[in-house]
Design goal:
The protein is built from three helices and five strands; from the N terminus they run αβββαβαβ. By secondary structure, the protein is of the alpha+beta class. Bound molecules: guanosine-5'-monophosphate and zinc ion.
Length: 113
């Protein structure tokens, strides 16, 4: 499958990996939108939120736990951060391998635009 994030999982494309375990990896976004901008992805290819299956529920929870760990390591936990999964065109999804954005280090706006 021609998926850029699967290639990062496989090590075919380099990334600044900040965390990895048997189920997920996290790396710096190549085009950061905040002082801290990390993407957490499952090693398993899941295209969109809509493709999450019953058996993946634990994995999604795990992605948020990894996000918490990164927020602590990057010292954005107490001030706070934004965690986002975009879905399809109107959601602004550009890469069709599920990813959780962790954005922090500045004050976020709402509504997000
Ligand atoms: P989306 O718009 O799909 O929610 O977010 C995709 C994110 O992936 C964007 O923030 C974009 O900057 C990031 N991205 C796209 N290609 C690469 C890449 O090859 N390496 C890294 N590290 N980030 C990428
Ligand atoms: Zn993939």
């Amino acid at each position: 499958m021609d998926c850029i994030f699967c290639k990062i999982v496989d090590g075919q494309i380099p990334a600044k990996i900040v965390y990895e375990d048997d189920k997920a990896i996290a790396f710096e976004d190549v085009n950061p939108q905040a002082p801290v901008h990390v993407l957490i992805i499952p090693r398993k290819h899941i295209s969109t939120i809509l493709d999450i299956e019953e058996e993946d529920k634990g994995l999604i929870g795990h992605m948020y736990s990894v996000g918490n760990e990164i927020a602590k390591r990057k010292n954005i936990d107490s001030r706070g951060f934004r965690s986002v999964m975009n879905c399809n065109e109107d959601g602004g999804q550009a890469v069709f391998h599920l990813h959780l954005h962790i954005l922090g280090g500045r004050s976020m706006q709402w509504p997000p635009g």
